[in-house]
């Protein structure tokens, strides 16, 4: 296999560890903290997790390792979408496991949870693991979106673990995957199976975050990658001076990626879904907001600009979310088949007119035809609109174009409005991890094995104090149940990890809000350039603007 010069160099990079994890596993001891409770719905969560609820937070520190020495076999899976640094979590886990006892074994189950259910695995060794150090992607064992959520699943996993004498399972994933980890840990504890479950926080969307998880892994690399591209586009825009670029970025459930990219690049427009929901902004109000910037810049002779749009924005627009709910109801059950069987868009449109309320039909009629049709593409497994398929960047550019045409007709706008569209998604999910993510992920994996070694179950690997140098990071663990609340899912109350949205009273958003009026009119672009791996720490090891502002 041919590899690039950068990949060769990255193989040689030694990830930095928090001070308390340095010096060998024999010198790592545990300090227990206070008992925990869930963020909400305490009595309900406690009743659902009687064996794993209320456990103490722990911190690792320098001192004699008092864990019981024994041979260990550990399973690891990658769950959900790719995020830069996943390979290093596994490398850190492997290195800690082998440093504790060279006889220890690490099983990598392939393609996510399905690998555990089908006993499809590989046994890691030095030669194999060394091919993936400090690299992007999840190709070390692959990933998947299957869930471990039924008693049948749990019993199958237990059977596979017992077959290989596996005593712990590490699940590397996002909020849903770690919710599954908590449920699996509780089941194993209730059955006294002697199998521990440890989670690691992954998602480039940044919505797996709270007072304990300062940053999910992959967010730093992904936003640096997207910001490099946005900066490149902005520089091209400022050079050609003839296009408005509408750029959609990842983030269906929250706007952390969009906000971080805006802080890094200072675009003319960046929409924040949480603000739109809080202000109950309509499609026309959002359109006016963007068009005002276009018109103001055109008045200064600048017929170009950058608008950043979060992927899931339409779900946060009140009138649009009502429209989507009505469409889901309109096509519920077998009605979708009847709709799809109609011979033309005209026939389908007539059915839509009859099925929607008057207000939702008014909203629907505002949309460009291609967006209207995207709302009726293939449904998700639950029969709902696949919001991620909606080209919101094209939606808003089309609405702004119509708005500006009306302004031109009444003489309030005299510019030229030409657009280009971009969606930044897969470009960032498997990038070479930044030094921050390489270090953070390696620490998470190393730390995860120490939690296993000390016998913890239902815990999340936790590394905090991330705005400081890696030497000052704090390693430990917390019960996953601490992050949970009850939410209504598919008609049932379910325990889930609470998603973190952009906080409108938080420092990152307040900084953005204080500067965006200037950015909307002036050309204040910042060009962050490519991720730097070698050089001074202030260039190579910096983390996100979001984290820096949060820790001010």
Short description:
The chain is an alpha/beta fold and 552 residues long. It has 22 helices and 16 strands.
Largest sheet: 10 strands, mixed
Query: Which regions have little confidence, pLDDT < 50, spanning 5+ residues?
Result: none
- Beta-strand segment tally: 16
Q: What's the CATH topology name of the largest domain?
A: Rossmann fold
Using the alpha-carbon principal axes, give the shape. Answer: globular
**SS class:** alpha/beta
Identify the CATH class of the largest domain.
Alpha Beta
Q: Count up the domains.
A: 2
Mean residue pLDDT: 94
Q: Roughly how many Å is the radius of gyration? A: 25 Å
The helical percent reads 40-55%
**Total count of helical runs of at least 4 residues:** 22
Query: What is the correct CATH architecture of the largest domain?
Result: 3-Layer(aba) Sandwich
Spatial gap, N to C terminus: 46 Å
What is the CATH superfamily classification of the largest domain? Phosphofructokinase domain
Beta content comes to: 15-25%
Provide tags for this entry.
16 strands, Rossmann fold, alpha/beta, single chain, 43% helix, 552 residues, ten-stranded mixed β-sheet
């Amino acid at each position: 296999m041919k590899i690039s010069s950068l990949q060769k160099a990255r193989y040689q990079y030694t990830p930095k560890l928090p001070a308390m994890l340095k010096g060998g596993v024999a010198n790592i001891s545990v300090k227990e903290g206070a008992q925990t409770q869930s963020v909400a719905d305490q009595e309900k969560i406690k009743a659902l997790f009687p064996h794993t609820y209320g456990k103490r937070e722990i911190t690792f520190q320098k001192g004699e390792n008092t864990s019981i020495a024994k041979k260990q076999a550990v399973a690891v899976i990658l769950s959900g979408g790719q995020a830069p640094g996943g390979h290093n979590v596994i490398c850190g886990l492997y290195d800690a496991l082998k440093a504790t006892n060279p006889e220890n074994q690490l099983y990598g189950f392939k393609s996510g949870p399905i690998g555990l259910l089908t006993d499809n695995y590989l046994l890691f060794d030095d030669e194999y693991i060394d091919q993936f150090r400090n690299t992007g992607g999840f190709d070390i064992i692959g990933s998947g979106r299957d869930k471990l959520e039924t008693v049948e699943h749990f019993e199958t996993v237990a059977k596979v673990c017992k077959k290989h004498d596996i005593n712990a399972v590490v699940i590397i994933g996002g909020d849903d995957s770690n919710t599954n980890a908590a449920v699996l840990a509780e089941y194993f504890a209730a059955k006294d199976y002697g199998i521990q479950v440890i989670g690691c926080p992954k998602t480039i969307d940044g919505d797996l975050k709270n007072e304990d998880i300062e940053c999910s892994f992959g967010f730093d690399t992904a936003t640096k990658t997207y910001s490099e591209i946005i900066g490149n586009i902005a520089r091209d825009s400022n050079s050609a001076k003839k296009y408005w670029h509408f750029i959609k970025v990842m983030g269906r459930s929250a706007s952390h990626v969009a906000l971080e990219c805006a802080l890094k690049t200072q675009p003319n427009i960046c929409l924040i879904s949480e603000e739109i929901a809080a202000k109950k902004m309509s499609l026309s109000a959002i359109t006016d907001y963007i068009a005002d910037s276009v018109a103001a810049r055109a008045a200064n002779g600048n017929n170009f600009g950058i608008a950043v749009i979060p992927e899931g924005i339409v779900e946060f627009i009140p009138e649009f979310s009502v429209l989507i709910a009505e469409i889901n109801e309109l096509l519920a059950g077998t009605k979708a088949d009847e709709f799809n069987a109609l011979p033309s868009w005209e026939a389908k449109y007539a059915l839509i007119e009859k099925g929607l309320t008057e207000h939702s039909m008014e909203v629907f009629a505002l949309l460009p035809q291609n967006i209207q049709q995207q709302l009726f593409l293939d449904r998700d497994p639950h029969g709902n609109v696949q919001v991620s398929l909606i080209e919101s960047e094209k939606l808003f550019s089309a609405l702004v174009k119509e708005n500006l045409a009306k302004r031109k007709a009444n003489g309030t706008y005299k510019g030229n409005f030409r657009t280009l569209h971009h969606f930044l998604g897969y470009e960032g999910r498997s990038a070479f991890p930044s030094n921050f993510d390489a270090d953070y992920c390696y620490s998470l994996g190393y730390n995860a094995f120490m939690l296993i070694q000390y016998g913890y179950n239902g815990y999340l690997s936790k590394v905090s104090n991330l705005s400081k140098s890696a030497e000052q990071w704090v390693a430990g663990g917390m019960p996953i149940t601490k992050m949970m609340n009850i939410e209504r899912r598919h008609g049932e109350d379910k325990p889930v990890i609470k998603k973190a949205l952009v906080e409108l009273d938080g420092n990152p958003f307040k900084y953005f809000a204080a500067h965006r009026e200037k950015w909307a009119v002036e050309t204040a672009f910042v060009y962050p350039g490519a991720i730097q791996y070698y050089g001074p720490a202030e260039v190579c090891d910096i983390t996100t603007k979001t984290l820096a502002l949060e820790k001010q």
